[in-house]
Design brief:
- A hairpin with a 2-residue loop joins strand 3 and strand 4.
- The chain has about 160 residues and is of the alpha+beta class.
- It has a five-stranded mixed beta sheet with strand order 1-2-3-4-5, with helices on both faces.
- It has four helices and five strands; from the N terminus they run E-H-H-E-E-E-H-E-H.
- The relative contact order is 0.15.
- Bound molecules: coenzyme A.
- The site of coenzyme A has 20 residues, from helix 1, strand 4, helix 3 and helix 4.
Amino acid sequence: MTNHLDTIEITEAVDATAELTEALARFLPQLSTSAEPFTRDVIEEIVREPNTVLLIARDHAEGGAIVGSLTLVLFRALTGLRAWRVDVVVDTASRRRGIGAALTRAAIDVAMKQGARTVDLTSRHSRKSARLLYERLGFTVRNTSVYRYIPRASGKDD
Ligand SMILES: CC(C)(COP(=O)(O)OP(=O)(O)OC[C@H]1O[C@@H](n2cnc3c(N)ncnc32)[C@H](O)[C@@H]1OP(=O)(O)O)[C@@H](O)C(=O)NCCC(=O)NCCS
């Protein structure tokens, strides 16, 4: 079997192209059951946001198709520069080839180069694949609680 990662290229998305918008729209239901569909303007906002890094994985064995993405947000707090990995997704047909791990390593690299002290993320208990991936890469579970305020009318929790 060939090393499937040989054909994978990870870059930061800098243009909100139709191709990128279409790929991210395809990934959205794999990330959230309640998120509203978005338009290209939203992707434009994300790529222009200076504190947000949108990484994409392309598979050159598939004509350079976008097969995964990861969003990292960096912000300065009194306690230092923080990095939050907001989401990672690999298209179903491309999973278990190391792409999620490669995206996550690339995000850690970006965060460390920017001077972040830590990289945080949250993951539901039901996301077994994701949790195995994080633990394998050295993330550890913190003994803390994540709180969320949800306006009554919304009821959304993704
Ligand atoms: C989580 C996700 C991004 C992993 O992407 P991936 O490209 O398949 O992950 P990798 O191939 O890099 O896996 C790296 C390691 O994670 C673990 N892992 C990942 N998926 C796994 C699975 N289904 N079962 C068991 N272990 C798994 C393994 O240790 C794996 O290494 P190995 O294949 O050498 O055993 C992908 O499953 C996904 O997009 N899921 C839906 C969206 C999601 O849950 N995102 C996370 C939000 S918190």
